[in-house]
């Protein structure tokens, strides 16, 4: 029997990471706005969104269940969330390159990697105190 997690996304620990990703996207876009103009800033923001949107999907999918009795459902929701994240990332890259056609690839990839680094460092943002045994 799976126990559904009814906690809103903004109250989960992952919300700090998502907020940090939003802030990094905005900071990178502002840097490119000041340095190279609005077109580069838009491309940098697109790069950040390519990371952010799949991570929001993952957070909604992965933290759907809680409790020891929901272990199988938690595992399956993490797995499907991660696979969905990969599919969304590839789909967003295809969409950006085929439909939007960015003119500043450097800004796009710097925005992408800057937000991706925030994801990689996410464990430092979501602190929990662990007891030593």
From TrEMBL:
<feature type="transmembrane region" description="Helical">
    <location>
        <begin position="83"/>
        <end position="100"/>
    </location>
</feature>
<protein>
    <recommendedName>
        <fullName>F0F1 ATP synthase subunit I</fullName>
    </recommendedName>
</protein>
<keyword id="KW-0472">Membrane</keyword>
<feature type="transmembrane region" description="Helical">
    <location>
        <begin position="12"/>
        <end position="35"/>
    </location>
</feature>
<keyword id="KW-0812">Transmembrane</keyword>
<dbReference type="Pfam" id="PF03899">
    <property type="entry name" value="ATP-synt_I"/>
</dbReference>
<dbReference type="GO" id="GO:0005886">
    <property type="term" value="C:plasma membrane"/>
</dbReference>
<keyword id="KW-1003">Cell membrane</keyword>
<feature type="transmembrane region" description="Helical">
    <location>
        <begin position="106"/>
        <end position="126"/>
    </location>
</feature>
<keyword id="KW-1133">Transmembrane helix</keyword>
<dbReference type="InterPro" id="IPR005598">
    <property type="entry name" value="ATP_synth_I"/>
</dbReference>
<feature type="transmembrane region" description="Helical">
    <location>
        <begin position="41"/>
        <end position="63"/>
    </location>
</feature>
